[in-house]
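This part of the workshop introduces the protein records we will be handling. Getting from the letters to the tokens is the skill we practise here. The record below serves as our worked example for the rest of this section.

…
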Amino acid sequence: MQLNKIFKGLVIALPVLTMMACSSTDETAAKAASEESRIAQEQAQADRKAQEARDSMVETGTVNPVMTPAEEMQQQLNALENNQLVYFDFDRASISSDFYNILDQHAAFLVKNIGQSIVIEGHCDSRGTPEYNIALGESRAKSVQTYLLNAGVSASQISVVSYGEEKPVNNDSSEAAFAENRRGVLVYQ
């Protein structure tokens, strides 16, 4: 850029010098030199303004950091762990269509990350015998397992456990409390 300015100055100054050499009076030469100097200054100023305008056109903005695959996987895992519950109707082990989207998200993650595994916990409310509730909790967990297997998750990534009524999230004896306790939980290992 500096060399370009010097060249432009020489191109302008050369004719001035030529005119000065050919000039018969000092006054004419002085006027020509003054005019050429003024033109050179104006040109240099115009060049600086043009460069400043080009520099100001550079777009600036925020740059989103690029995540490593491990960071991306951890972010997805955190999101899934915030949405890991499947609730069941009383005395039922069938999955409501309300939970298909949640299970599809877990299945997609597990298919993409074959090194990840989960334990599906089956839970029941306190109604029924302990033996019955253990069996019902297992049926609920196996329903979730079957759904994930049908979605393409490898069987080696899934294990099932039933806690029956042993780990309630709400100890009240209301229908709302019972509904909270009838659940399947997807726990990542």
